[in-house]
Write a structure and sequence with these properties.
The complex is a heterodimer of chains A (about 300) and B (about 170). By secondary structure, chain A is of the alpha+beta class. In chain A, about 35% of the residues lie in helices and about 25% in strands. Chain A folds into 3 domains: about 5-55, Uridine Diphospho-n-acetylenolpyruvylglucosamine Reductase, domain 2 (2-Layer Sandwich), CATH 3.30.43; about 65-175, Uridine Diphospho-n-acetylenolpyruvylglucosamine Reductase, domain 3, CATH 3.30.465; about 180-295, Enolase-like, domain 1 (2-Layer Sandwich). Chain A has helices at about 15-25, 35-40, 80-85, 85-90, 90-95, 105, 110-120, 125-130, 150, 230-235, 240-255, 265-290, and strands spanning about 5-10, 30, 50-55, 65, 70-75, 135-140, 145-150, 155, 160, 165-175, 180-185, 195-205, 210-220, 225. In chain A, strand 4 and strand 5 (about 70-75) form a beta hairpin. The longest helix of chain A has 28 residues, at about 265-290. Chain A is globular. Chain A starts with 6 loop residues before the first strand and ends with a helix. Chain B has about 170 residues and is an alpha+beta fold. Helices cover about 40% and strands about 15% of the residues of chain B. The mean pLDDT of chain B is about 95. The chains are: A alpha+beta (about 300), B alpha+beta (about 170). At the A-B interface, helix 2 and helix 6 of A face strand 4, helix 3 and helix 4 of B. The complex binds flavin-adenine dinucleotide (FAD). Flavin-adenine dinucleotide (FAD) binds next to strand 2, helix 2, helix 7, helix 8 and strand 10 of chain A. Flavin-adenine dinucleotide (FAD) binds near residues 101 and 161 of chain A.
Chain lengths: ~300, ~170
């Protein structure tokens, strides 16, 4: 239960960090909060030759608004996002999901970039950032590229990140103020990974008909699962309880959840269906109250 | 594998030592600094026995390397009592029988010291949520919840007395 030996590097700038990644390639692992990586080292599931610790790299920890987007540095602690007034105001969905991630002692070290890169299918952040249509800024010595959440998640624990790339920043379009959102989750205990979790965003047009909806599910597929058919079925409806009920059934029929020691596939499908219905109703209610308040 | 020299502040004292990069902070505190109050439990972040306060935040010392603590200010369970006088949290745990074997207690105390400073008047639900990050296999948690609530009440009374004194 002790980590294997490794060479430790603690660069101070992004340039130094990506140069180290270019030099060592597959032999190196980036160390951010360490809340997923260090357990794997302690359990000897991984034996990297080099650890590139990015905790002292300048300019990777920030939360700011840039041209209609919320930009968050990859090394920003989950706890800082949870406490951020700017996040609460501009991106309530992200704010609402934060306390579901692990425990406060884990969030005080864990980073947003680490969770997004680790890509656990039951993790909250990949699902929330997918629902928000977020983008990932990836840097290497070869240059910078920006990848959408939909393209970033390629499979179970797999992402578009190449071994020499550093995720530096996450950019999330700020949803219009009249958007209603909801995040709901079922887990075995408070702070455990989700058996199923659902992130929803809803907007109505002037006639009170659904003009925009996003429904993304965590914990059931290898990647955050978005059902385009379910979303399409809701457009133009008033998103009344029966519309939410029908949509959640449609979504559940598309799911092919895994069975494991924590829950059976049927349990996960059922939990996802009920959460989707409740989250759609809750987000619709919130969107309507924004409209009535004239915000 | 090259050793690194580490300088840090532990419980208000400047401390230093040498460690190879793979050395976990919990082992450095116990073996190199002789602070054995911090316990190494599951060693993968789940049980919370090794929780210490690192630059003001409660963290798992089994998921940090000692080399990462260069320049940091750390508090361990040894910082709580003032000589023979127990800290309010410790006294409340003692009176409520909130421990049996005591293995998980240091991590719970350090977690709760941070929790109560951020949430000074918690509801029972908030206390239970905050405790979800630390496992206790003896007590069934009931008395731990009570002890944390008692400590919160006592801390509030102390604060009130201090403000009254300042107002005079
Ligand atoms: C007890 C416990 C319970 C948990 N419960 C939950 C939970 O309920 N929900 C949840 O979502 N998570 C949970 N986690 C995981 C936690 O959220 C981690 O913080 C997160 O998954 C990883 O973030 P990190 O910063 O700690 O990354 P690290 O552990 O340092 O790294 C994780 C991976 O990402 C890579 N990486 C990190 N940063 C970058 C970057 N900038 N660019 C490229 N690659 C990078 C690393 O190389 C590594 O492969 C839990 C962890 C523990 C220990």
């Amino acid at each position: 239960m002790k980590p294997p030996a490794f060479e430790y590097r603690d660069p101070r700038t992004r340039e130094e960090a990506i140069a180290l990644l270019a030099e060592h390639g597959e032999a190196a692992k980036i160390l951010a909060g360490g809340q997923s990586l260090v357990p794997m080292l302690n359990l000897r599931l991984l034996r990297p030759e080099y650890l590139v610790d990015i905790n002292r790299v300048a300019g990777l920890s920030f939360i700011e608004v840039k041209g209609g987007e919320l930009a968050i540095g990859a090394c920003t602690r989950q706890r800082a996002i949870e406490r951020s007034e700017l996040v609460r105001r501009t991106c309530p969905l992200l704010h609402e999901a934060m306390p579901f991630i692990a425990h406060f002692q884990i969030r005080s070290r864990g980073t947003i970039g680490g969770s997004l890169s680790h890509a656990d299918p039951a993790a909250e952040l990949p699902t929330v950032v997918t629902a928000l249509g977020g983008r990932f800024v990836l840097r290497s010595v070869r240059g910078e590229r920006v990848v959408s959440a939909a393209d970033f998640y390629t499979g179970f624990l797999s992402t578009a990140l190449r071994p020499d790339e550093l995720l530096t920043e996450i950019r999330v379009p700020i949803p219009p103020v009249q958007t209603g959102c909801a995040f709901m989750e079922v887990s075995r205990r408070h702070g455990d990974f989700a058996l199923a979790a659902v992130a929803v965003l809803v907007r109505f047009d002037q006639d009170g008909r659904c003009a925009f909806v996003r429904l993304v599910v965590a914990g059931v597929h290898g990647v955050p699962f978005r059902s385009a058919d379910t979303e399409a079925s809701l457009i133009g409806t008033k998103l009344l309880p029966e519309d939410a009920e029908n949509a959640s059934r449609l979504m559940a029929a598309e799911l092919e959840p895994i069975s494991d020691l924590h829950a059976s596939a049927d349990y996960r499908r059922q939990a996802a269906r009920v959460l989707a219905r409740r989250a759609l109703e809750c987000a619709a209610l919130r969107a309507r109250s924004h409209a009535e308040a004239g915000t | 594998m090259t050793q690194r020299h580490i300088r840090l502040n532990v419980n208000g004292q400047p401390r230093e030592g040498d460690a190879s990069p793979r050395k976990l902070l919990v082992d450095f505190l116990r073996e190199d600094l002789g602070l054995t109050g911090t316990h190494a439990g599951c060693e993968h972040g789940v049980c919370g026995a090794c929780t210490v306060v690192f630059d003001g935040e409660a963290v798992r010392s089994c998921l940090l390397f000692a080399v990462q603590a260069e320049g940091a200010a750390i508090s361990t369970v040894e910082s709580l009592a003032d000589g023979e006088t127990l800290h309010v949290l410790q006294q409340s745990f003692h009176e409520c029988h909130a421990l049996q074997c005591g293995f998980c207690t240091p991590g719970i105390l350090m977690s709760m010291s941070v929790f109560l400073s951020e949430c000074p008047a918690p509801t029972e639900q908030q206390v239970r949520e905050a405790l979800s990050g630390t496992l206790c296999r003896c007590t069934g948690y009931q008395n731990i919840v009570r002890a944390v609530q008692l400590a919160a009440t006592r801390l509030a009374a102390t604060r009130l007395a201090a403000t009254r004194l300042a107002a005079k």
